[in-house]
């Protein structure tokens, strides 16, 4: 699953803006509708997740730098999350050490850019 420099994402998914999962890894957390809604709101109103954190399944991530309207990044302990928005979907990658945050960002954002180029 999504390898870079010999490292792999812990979990990943492609989810439609409506919260319907298009594809996910076996160990991807069970999403709640309100979590996708909160993520979509942050893309519309950058910074809205910062006070509460980004929740995915039962895990809370502290929101860190991203690209307003395009990418949300979060951190929890030695791991984290990257969410890239395309025209129709959210690309979500979760990582833990030894993968570095930048490696996760690169995987998720490149896939998102590819889907954007394809009209998705």
TrEMBL record:
Keyword Cytoplasm: yes
First-listed, main subcellular location of the protein, grouped into a coarse class: cytoplasm
GO molecular function terms attached to this record: actin monomer binding
CDD domains per record: PROF (cd00148)
Pfam families: Profilin
A cellular component annotation (GO) from this entry: cell cortex
Name used for this protein in its record: Profilin
UniProt xrefs under SMART domains: PROF
Family indicated by similarity: Belongs to the profilin family.
Source taxon at top rank: Eukaryota
Organism the protein comes from: Apostasia shenzhenica
Alphabetical keyword list: Actin-binding, Cytoplasm, Cytoskeleton
Subcellular location: Cytoplasm, Cytoskeleton
Cited SUPFAM superfamilies: Profilin (actin-binding protein)
């Amino acid at each position: 699953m999504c390898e870079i420099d010999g490292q792999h994402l812990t979990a990943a998914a492609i989810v439609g803006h409506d919260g319907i999962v298009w594809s996910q890894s076996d160990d991807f957390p069970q999403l709640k509708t309100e979590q996708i809604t909160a993520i979509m709101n942050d893309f519309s109103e950058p910074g809205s997740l910062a006070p509460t954190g980004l929740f995915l399944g039962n895990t809370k991530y502290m929101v860190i730098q991203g690209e307003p309207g395009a990418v949300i990044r979060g951190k929890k302990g030695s791991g984290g999350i990257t969410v890239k928005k395309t025209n129709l979907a959210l690309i979500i990658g979760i990582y833990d050490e030894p993968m570095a945050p930048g490696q996760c960002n690169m995987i998720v954002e490149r896939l998102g850019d590819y889907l954007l180029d394809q009209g998705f």
